[in-house]
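To whoever is on call:

I kicked off a structure prediction for a single chain this morning and the downstream step that reads the tokens threw a length-mismatch warning. I double-checked the sequence; it's 412 residues and nothing unusual in it as far as I can see. Pasting both halves so you can look.
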Amino acid sequence: MNPAGKKPHRAFVVLIALMMIQAGVMGVLYNCCGIVFTAIIDDLGFGAGDLSVYYMIRSFATAIFVGLTTKLYFGRHTRLVMGLLGVLYVGAFASMSLFSELWQWYIAAAIGGIGMSCTLVVIPATLNNWFKIKNGLMIGLTMSSSGVMGAVFSPLCSALIESFGWRSTVLIMAGIGVVLIILPCIFIASTPESCGLRPYGEDSSASNEACSATGSSADEASSQTSMAASPLIYVLSLVALVGTSSLIQFNAQLPVYAQSIGYTLSAGAMLTSCSMVGNLIGKLGLGALSDRIGIYKAGALFLLAVGAGMLGLLFGQGSLMILYVSSLLYGIVYCANTTMPSLLYLDIYGKQGSQGRVSSMQAIYNAIAAVLSAGFPYIYDWTGTFNGVIAFGAIISFMAVAILMWLRSRRA
């Protein structure tokens, strides 16, 4: 750490830049996409499933390119790579303002998927490089920025569509993306060594670093090698992380879900806003709590809340207040795709082995998400209800809790 009186460590500049990128990529352009698409469906008459193929193509592109873009990012041209990816992502989103045919959205989805391909891997990995202490909190703080922006921008997005139409709103959102995603790239660096610096908090003892990063005791750390060598551990961790992360795809359907049970688009936008509050609580809370009680206990508690939220969406449809609270609890699921993988794999595989595992996990997740992003709305088109999807979400959440508790028993 820096001595008292010295200027702040460069790590905090990188932290702020990554928070802005996360807020722009996920909080504005990703999380609010469902609100825009609901307006597009009403205007152009597309089926919910037809337009949701956009999500499928975007996820497939992300799954295909996540390994390559992550490798390029940690190469010699970090700022250039992230800047180019930002241009692809924002440009593809802005181009939607000109579209009128489905195939145009599908091409934009492929370009946008490449643009966002490395974000979920490189942000936590970069923070692990820059922070030797409290990296759980820093990862959670950064990932939660998308929840803050999503909670603020969701109702604003709905108001902009009502006032200016969805095409102008798309351009406004893209302009925000330029400020939040592209401009901060000049301040990032993949490692402190590339700037001639040392990580923040490197003077702390090794034992304190281990406890801060994972919430684990020294005795628990002795089991890391045996866990890392077990294929079953990796398979079960994938089931827990990818299974719960797949539920994120339902967030884009919240406005449609609200309308399907008799509520307005504004109510659907508020459900999305509530889920973004849960997004904030999940990412920030999981990072901070895992520093204190460990990633296994903290993860299980948060996924229990997700399961409760899914049950509320299933059985509380007669009350908007219950739906708002349930959406908030459901929104906690975002931590399973952002904060949790980095901390869980850091605990199991260590710093050197975790980056590759997180990259593989995100590739598998995006491949599955590609199917579910179109599958969820098609299920609604065929059945007229989202109840089956919501029930599946509750089951997979509680199953993930059981897996985390089993992993914790092996870790101890």
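Update from on-call: the warning came from a stale cache, not from the record. Cleared it. Sanity check on the structure: Residues 1-5, 205-221 have pLDDT under 50 and may be disordered.
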